[in-house]
Design brief:
With 430 residues, the protein is an alpha+beta fold. Helices cover 29% and strands 28% of the residues. The strands form 4 sheets. It has an 8-stranded antiparallel β-sheet with strand order 13-12-9-10-11-14-18-16, sandwiched between helices. It has a 5-stranded mixed β-sheet with strand order 4-1-2-3-20, with helices on both faces. Helix 3 crosses helix 4 and helix 5 crosses helix 6. GO terms for molecular function: ATP binding; ligase activity; metal ion binding.
């Protein structure tokens, strides 16, 4: 008899730990990702090379299997499919519809905040570029332009000049599934994140992090430090607001993450949310900081079985996202052994191997890896980050631009919409 499987939508670095957690729980894994060389392609028992946004077709292709749960960590784009596949396949846990909508529609999330009377800020959202530009002209500069339904910093841009707005809107629309773009007033203050997990409509755990970014124009996350240094009254207010938002959305159980800004008056303004495990290594950060395995907890919730969220320790932890500023071929990684030997290093994960094509860090999906550091003080964490940065080197051979008279190389053949990379189910992984 075929053992039950867990269906994981997405096969990237932030979904891969869910594959391993599913195996530890004794389940087979079905992975879905439109990239044929995604990390999940070699980690799954069955890998479907197709979009995660076609739940009916996915359900048809796994109909012969016993699917015990559906999950998609770190992906807003797949959350609607998680909800629909949970319904189609009859799995135990189904995410709250309004929480899913708030995760994939930034304008709707703003409406929820307004309805709760929480601090807000100016924004406009539309699928009509002309209407959007006209409405955005009334917003104070600078503004942030982004797709209304995408994540991973794709298509995000800070605009300080009205003349640059049309091009920014056009770029953001290329990353929007719905064609809608949101233009928001740019908030000033400390950028923070909260990675939380609810159980029975109560806040079971929350990790509040100090978030660093690349700054303008793309504002892409480059790292987190936990716990963030918040005034007690601010942390109490944050917890209350998180519960108010989750209550309004009907999100009573499961992971949820928020990005927000705290200004100089200690006022909290939320930017966006995701009713799923966070990306950019956030579950790894929580595990090293508090000893909580949120991947396993999220899987157990999806399976409809009890899960554990008890903190085992409380450590100051930093997560650094490893990147390159060059498009090209990774030729070598230098200093990895020296970084792993640092007393503060808890974990170093490097995703590409020499010979792989790498991209400069213009969106979160272009990261090269994660470095997790643990120390007794924030000063020691920062010193360790500086030492690691001086030791670790990615040797990238830049891409050479094509000569003017040289015809462009043909694009590789497209992968069919649904191609099983491995059609035989393996009962054992060797």
């Amino acid at each position: 008899m075929t053992k039950p499987h867990i269906l994981v939508l997405g096969g990237g670095e932030d979904q891969l730990p869910a594959y391993h957690a599913a195996r530890r729980l004794g389940y087979g894994v079905v992975g879905v990702d439109q990239r044929p060389h995604a990390l999940g392609a070699s980690a799954a028992d069955l890998f479907l090379c197709m979009t995660t946004r076609d739940p009916e077709r996915i359900a048809a292709m796994v109909g012969h299997l016993d699917i015990a749960a559906v999950i998609s960590p770190a992906s807003d784009a797949a959350q609607e499919s998680v909800a629909e596949l949970s319904r189609l396949l009859g799995t135990p846990y189904r995410p709250a519809p309004d929480a899913v909508r708030a995760s994939v529609d930034k304008g709707y999330f703003h409406e929820v905040l307004e309805g709760l009377g929480l601090p807000t800020y100016a924004y406009v959202q539309s699928a009509d570029p002309v209407e959007l530009r006209l409405a955005a002209a009334a917003l104070p500069l600078p503004v942030i332009v982004k797709p209304s339904d995408s994540s991973g910093s794709k298509g995000v841009q800070v605009v300080a000049d009205q003349a640059a707005l049309p091009e920014a809107v056009t770029e953001a629309r290329t990353y929007s599934f719905s064609g809608e773009v949101i233009v928001e007033e740019m908030l000033l203050g400390r950028h923070l994140s909260a990675e939380a997990f609810l159980r029975d409509a109560k806040l079971a755990t929350i990790a509040v992090t100090e978030r660093s970014t690349t700054g303008a124009p793309h504002m892409i996350t480059t790292g987190h430090m936990v716990p963030a240094e918040l005034a007690p009254v601010t942390e109490i207010a944050l917890r209350s607001m998180v519960m108010d938002i989750c209550g309004a959305l009907g999100h009573t159980d499961g992971p949820v993450n928020f990005d927000f800004v705290v200004d100089r008056t200690e006022e909290i303004r939320f930017i966006e949310m995701g009713a799923r495990l966070g990306g950019n290594g956030m579950p790894l950060l929580v595990r090293h900081a508090y000893g909580i395995d949120t991947y396993e907890a999220a899987l157990r919730l999806a399976l409809g079985v009890p899960f554990e969220l008890q903190a085992r320790h409380d450590k100051k932890t930093a997560l650094q996202i490893l990147t390159t500023d060059t498009d090209g071929i990774l030729r070598a990684v230098e200093g990895a052994d020296e970084v792993r030997a640092l007393p503060e290093t808890a974990e170093l994960r490097i995703f590409p191997t020499p010979g792989s094509r790498v991209r400069r860090y213009t969106q979160a999906g272009h990261k090269l890896g994660y470095l997790l550091l643990v120390a007794d003080t924030y000063a020691e964490l920062r010193e360790a980050q500086t030492r690691a940065k001086s030791l670790l080197r990615f040797e990238v051979e830049p891409e050479m631009p094509a000569a003017p008279d040289t015809p462009a190389a043909p694009e590789p053949a497209a992968v069919p919409a649904a191609t099983p990379i491995r059609t035989e189910l393996l009962t054992e992984k060797r």
